[in-house]
Write a structure and sequence with these properties.
The complex is a heterotrimer, with 1 copy of chain A (270 residues) and 2 copies of chain B (212 residues).
Chain A: H1 6-19, H2 33-43, H3 53-69, H4 76-93, H5 107-133, H6 162-179, H7 191-201, E1 209-210, H8 211-214, H9 225-241, E2 245-249, E3 256-260, H10 262-269
Antiparallel strand pairs in A: 1-3, 2-3
Helix pairs in contact in A: 1-3, 2-3, 2-5, 3-4, 4-5, 7-9
Chain B: H1 3-14, E1 19-20, H2 21-27, H3 34-45, E2 50-55, E3 58-63, H4 68-74, H5 83-95, E4 98-99, H6 100-107, H7 113-121, E5 125-131, E6 138-142, H8 144-149, H9 161-166, E7 190-192, H10 195-199, H11 208-211
Antiparallel strand pairs in B: 1-3, 2-3, 4-6, 5-6, 5-7
Helix pairs in contact in B: 1-3, 5-7
The chains are: A mainly alpha (270), B alpha+beta (212).
Chain lengths: 270, 212, 212
């Protein structure tokens, strides 16, 4: 490889790139860095397997520079490729190390691998075109058109695809999961909230007051009335035990009345 | 064979129905002699397996009448599994060995009893053993014919969860809780079928009430 | 024209899709020389408006390619494949069996998931099995429908296949290591399927309570 000649060649390539700017302005038109490299490599007009990777690297960096000049946001993988190419190019320019360790790939190997990948991608693109250029059914060639004619289906064997099988399975599992009844968990009126509320109301509880009036009414989206009543009662009973509150109920299922015990309440407030 | 004859032949072959001479002329290059082309084509096809016929002033290619027996006898519908069958088959494949009750659990409906029997008859599913659980229900598994049908080398080749996700079949809505046991993986204890059982596989409905 | 030739002609004409020699033989009187009949028929139809073609190892009658311009009415633009889809299809065809990761490697991009899935849905590509390599990734191959669509008699008729093989371009092993020495690498040659499968597969959802 005559590396000494690389620099003048690069200058030439830069000029030629400027000539057909339209080709390289639109980064959106490319499918990743390898695609860009392939387009640039084609411009070298040599067998892709024999391409000058050093020159290609320079062209690629040029391409990115132009993209940036046009303030096109360059995706990270383009930059990773750029870094790799710079690294590869510098390794290619360095004299080969005297002792060759066979364990690690040489820069020449890496360059060859890149050239191979470009050639392979190009081959696949051409293959796709060749397939399209062939006789495509219902575009270039046509089979019997009459749908009402007596027909024979080619075979009685089952024709199934794994994809269908998977889809059938997933469909059912989805339906099954939708079928599972999951009632929304009831929102409970928290005990500590109830306690805080009753404590705050203590000064106002000089007379017997009905529990149903002390408990909050319950609200949409919040705890319902039953939970409010239950939690308020539980909190009240705690306060009764602490001696801050009195409670009484005249008979079973009758309304429960609460009254603050002023003395202790005073001490608590102090 | 003249160029016009070729064109008429191709047009009649690909047409969805019979074409009149006027319709043919419209689609052929200007100045084509349609009548001569049709006459030549008719002569060419005389006595062949396919013939050129004129019905109500329209032309069409059709199979020779004397060969009709070949057509009618061999008329066949393409065989595809019904949706229910495919669904049941998928459950057996992904959960084998599996009992009827378990299949119903996944399918949600009391699975059409016939579906599993059809699969058994087609040789895609087989009875495998009896679960060591109350009622000792019969378990089912897929057969080698199943593997052949789907071109799988072995059950471990069955596409799994990751592939379902990759294929876009599993969205984010079915996430963490969606999972299944690996076919052939965790095996619930079960006994092999006794010989006589394999013959009369309808007997297993006796086991149903227990597992239901 | 022999009787067998006539019958083959009629059968192919009336068939909804390509028929294999074996399928033809099934429908013909015992002892019929199908191969000879097909050869004679192919010669008879050569250069005509309708021709006998071999696709996916089966036979079908189709209009001559050079007359495509006449078929304005019949032409149904086949579902347009994107450039990425065409490229992916070519990669699968020329490298099959091939994994998703390998397709991405050849294309040099993390493929848009939808591309391969579209091909799967269209029935041009199918899942074939699992690679016997770490992670056991699912492999893909093209279907007979692919061969029929592009009018190929067999996989060996792919355009340029021999040349590509000779140039060594169809290897998947080369190029994977091209991220030499670069931290992070430009290409992840690892298969992403592995992790989630092993983690999530062993949960047995059937063990969950039956009625939630």
């Amino acid at each position: 490889m005559s590396l000494a000649f690389q620099t003048p060649l690069d200058l030439q390539s830069r000029r030629s790139l400027d000539d057909d700017e339209a080709l390289i302005v639109d980064l959106d038109g490319y499918e990743g860095p390898l695609d860009v490299l392939l387009v640039l490599a084609r411009a070298q007009k040599v067998d892709l397997l024999k391409i000058s990777v050093a020159r290609l690297a320079e062209q690629y960096l040029d391409f990115l520079r132009q993209a940036r000049r046009r303030r096109i946001v360059v995706a990270a993988d383009y930059l990773v490729m750029a870094a790799w190419l710079v690294f590869l190019k510098s390794r290619l320019l360095l004299p080969a190390p005297s002792k060759v360790s066979d364990a690690t790939a040489t820069p020449e190997d890496a360059a060859r691998a890149l050239a191979f990948r470009l050639a392979r991608l190009e081959a696949m693109r051409q293959a796709a075109e060749a397939l399209e250029a062939g006789s495509v059914l219902h575009r270039d060639v046509f089979t019997r058109g009459d749908p009402t004619a007596i027909r024979i289906t080619p075979s009685g064997r089952l024709e199934e695809s794994l994809f269908d099988l998977m889809a059938a399975y997933v469909d059912q599992r989805r339906r099954q999961s939708e079928r599972c009844y999951a009632p929304p968990a009831a929102v409970a009126y928290r005990l500590d909230e109830a306690r805080a509320r009753v404590r705050a109301l203590l000064p106002a509880l000089g007379r017997w007051s009905a529990l149903s009036r002390i408990a909050p009414p319950g609200a949409d989206g919040g705890p319902d009335r039953a939970s409010c009543l239950a939690s308020t009662l539980a909190a009240s009973l705690e306060l009764v035990r602490e001696g801050q509150l009195e409670a009484r109920q005249l008979t079973d299922f009758a309304e429960i009345y609460l009254r603050g015990r002023a003395a202790k309440h005073g001490r608590q407030a102090a | 064979m003249t160029a016009v004859e070729r064109m008429i032949e191709a047009l009649l072959f690909a047409a969805a129905g019979p074409l009149s001479a006027a319709e043919l002329a419209e689609r052929l290059p200007a100045g084509s002699d349609v009548a001569a082309g049709l006459a030549a084509l008719k002569a060419r096809y005389a006595g062949r397996g396919v013939e050129l016929a004129c019905v109500a002033d329209r032309w069409r290619l059709q199979t020779a009448e004397d060969l009709a027996y070949l057509m009618t006898v061999e008329r066949q519908e393409p065989r595809r599994l019904t949706r229910a069958a495919k669904e049941t088959l998928a459950i057996v494949a992904y959960h084998q060995p599996v009992t009827r009750a378990e299949i119903d659990l996944v399918r949600g409906v009391q699975a059409n009893r016939g579906t599993l029997d059809t699969l058994l008859e087609m040789g895609l599913v087989r009875m495998r053993g009896r679960r060591r659980s109350p009622g000792r229900p019969v378990t089912f598994a897929v057969t080698d014919a199943f593997l052949e049908l789907y071109g799988l080398a072995s059950m471990t080749d069955l596409p799994g969860l990751a592939e379902m996700k990759a294929a876009g079949l599993l969205g984010l809505d079915i996430g963490a809780e969606f999972s299944f046991d690996l076919p052939g993986g965790a095996e619930a204890a079960e006994d092999p079928l006794e010989e006589c059982e394999t013959v009369e596989f309808n007997v297993d409905f006796l086991a149903e009430p227990v597992t239901a």
